[in-house]
C-alpha cells in the first residue's frame, strides 16, 4: 500500500466511524434523502458517492438492534440503557448538565425505545429501500 493509498483509506475509516455518531444522524439522513428525492425528480443537481453510501450502511448497522429477533433486541436494549444510566450517574456527580434520558429513576425505557425506533431507525430503513437506485449511480472509490 502506498502512502497515498494509506491516507485515503485512513480518511475513509475515520469518516465511517464518525458517521456512527448520533450527532451526525440527521445530517446523514438528510444527505441521502435529498439525493434520492432529486434522483426521483431526474435532477442532476446533486451527486453522492460511495463514501456517503458506506457511511449510511455502517450507521444503519450500528443502530440495527431494533431489527433483530426479540430476545436479542431486549438484551442489547438493556445493555445500552445500562450504559446510558451509568453515564447519567457519573454526570449527576461530576456535571451540572443532567440529561433526562440518562436518569435511571425517571426514564421510561419503553417510550425511549419507541421514539428511537420511530425517529431514528425507521428513517434509515426507509432509505435503504432506495439502495437499488443508489447502486446504479455511485462512483466506486
Task: Characterise this structure.
With 141 residues, this protein is mostly helical. It has one domain: Orthogonal Bundle (Catalytic domain of cyclic nucleotide phosphodiesterase 4b2b). It is 68% helix and 0% strand. It has 6 helices and no strands. It has helices at residues 3-19, 25-40, 50-62, 70-94, 109-128, 131-135. Helix 2 packs across helix 3 (50-62). The radius of gyration is 18 Å and the shape is globular. The protein starts with a helix and ends in a 6-residue tail after the last helix.
Index terms:
mainly alpha, 141 residues, Catalytic domain of cyclic nucleotide phosphodiesterase 4b2b
Summarize this, please?
The model has no long low-confidence stretch (mean pLDDT 83). The chain has helices at residues 3-19, 25-40, 50-62, 70-94, 109-128, 131-135. The protein is built from six helices and no strands.
SSE layout and pairing:
Blueprint lengths: L2 H17 L5 H16 L9 H13 L7 H25 L14 H20 L2 H5 L6
Helix pairs in contact: 1-3, 2-3, 2-5
What is the level-2 CATH architecture name? Orthogonal Bundle
Structural classification: mainly alpha
Q: Might you state the CATH topology name?
A: Catalytic domain of cyclic nucleotide phosphodiesterase 4b2b
CATH class: Mainly Alpha
Portion in helices:
55-70%
Can you write the helix and strand succession as a string? HHHHHH
- Tally of separate helices: 6
Amino acid at each position: 500500500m502506498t502512502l497515498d493509498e494509506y491516507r485515503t483509506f485512513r480518511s475513509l475509516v475515520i469518516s465511517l466511524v464518525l458517521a456512527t455518531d448520533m450527532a451526525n444522524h440527521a445530517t446523514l439522513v438528510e444527505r441521502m434523502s435529498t439525493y434520492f428525492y432529486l434522483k426521483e425528480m431526474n435532477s442532476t443537481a446533486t451527486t453522492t458517492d460511495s463514501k456517503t453510501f458506506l457511511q449510511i450502511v455502517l450507521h444503519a448497522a450500528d443502530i440495527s438492534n431494533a431489527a433483530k429477533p426479540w430476545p436479542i433486541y431486549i438484551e442489547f436494549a438493556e445493555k445500552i440503557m445500562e450504559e446510558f444510566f451509568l453515564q447519567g450517574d457519573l454526570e449527576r456527580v461530576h456535571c451540572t448538565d443532567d440529561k433526562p434520558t440518562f436518569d435511571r429513576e425517571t426514564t421510561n425505557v419503553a417510550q425511549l425505545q419507541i421514539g428511537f425506533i420511530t425517529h431514528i431507525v425507521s428513517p434509515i430503513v426507509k432509505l435503504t429501500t432506495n439502495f437499488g437506485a443508489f447502486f446504479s449511480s455511485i462512483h466506486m472509490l
